[in-house]
Write a structure and sequence with these properties.
By secondary structure, the chain is an alpha/beta fold. The protein has helices at about 5-25, 25-40, 40-50, 55-60, 65-70, 95-105, 135-150, 165-170, 185-200, 215-225, 235-245; strands at about 85-90, 115-120, 155-160, 205-210, 230-235. It has two domains: about 1-60; about 80-245, Rossmann fold.
């Protein structure tokens, strides 16, 4: 537990961050500012998110994150290799996914409680954004922390890059994802099966959330792996749960 003085300093840092956010010229600038502070001063970032959830959550998740994902490769964001950038996998990791998880995440998988995985094919209402879909996984993780109180250090935003059928994204200067059409069929199913089983082995106490997969793959993955490990698809089961409620 923090001392009273330490808590006051943290609250002051959080309030200072909120003031900076309010001074930014537009929402995408606010998004990049918040992502930068998330990486450089995570305690202040999460304190601000907890104190001003209604104000800040729309800036780090919907609706702002859609614009961010659409131009993800052009934004100044935490670099790959940092937990704040998320964990990237690709079709090139086939056969070595478990080793990739162990080497690319800075802490022990046994401490992980939530993994949010996307392949970037159906990002919000924007469609196939390829590797830019990582912004959705990062944003969804923040919901777990801000709303459910899950330790951010126990959450892993993850993207499996299998290419993109969006030619504008694929050919954009500076695009950092796989510049190839999407992997399909048995090759895709085999790769995703390896990813799911690797997550189970690496993070045996985690729940896996499938996020913004295309409709065909979303249903297929859920049917194939619902007994492999604790998992759910927010777009299928989350939406249905809210509708039924």
């Amino acid at each position: 537990a923090r001392s009273g003085a330490a808590q006051r300093r943290l609250e002051a840092a959080a309030d200072a961050l909120v003031a900076l956010v309010r001074e930014a010229p537009d929402d995408i600038s606010r998004y990049t500012l918040l992502r930068a502070v998330q990486a450089s001063a995570p305690s202040a970032f999460h304190a601000a998110l907890a104190r001003r959830t209604a104000e800040l959550l729309p800036l780090v998740y919907t609706p702002t994150v859609g614009d961010a994902c659409a131009r993800y490769h052009t934004l100044d964001l935490p670099r790959a290799g940092s937990r704040y950038a998320g964990l990237y996998l690709s079709s090139a990791d086939k056969g070595n996914v478990l080793e990739a998880l162990r080497s690319r995440w800075p802490s022990d998988g046994r401490d992980v409680r939530v993994v949010v995985l996307t392949d970037g094919e159906r990002i919000l209402g924007l469609g196939d954004l390829g590797a830019g879909g990582m912004g959705i996984s990062v944003g969804k993780i923040l919901l777990y922390t801000a709303v459910a109180g899950v330790d951010p250090g126990a959450c892993v935003p993850m993207l499996i890059d299998v290419g993109t059928n969006n030619e504008a994204v694929r050919s954009a200067p500076g695009y950092g994802g796989v510049r190839a059409p999407r992997l399909r069929g048995d090759a895709y199913a085999s790769l995703l099966s390896e990813v799911v089983h690797a997550v189970r082995a690496w993070a045996p106490r985690a729940v896996l959330q499938f996020e913004d997969f295309g409709n065909t793959n979303a249903f297929t993955l859920l049917r194939a792996h619902r007994t492999t490990l604790p998992c759910f698809n927010d777009d299928i089961e989350g939406t249905a749960s809210v509708a039924c409620a």
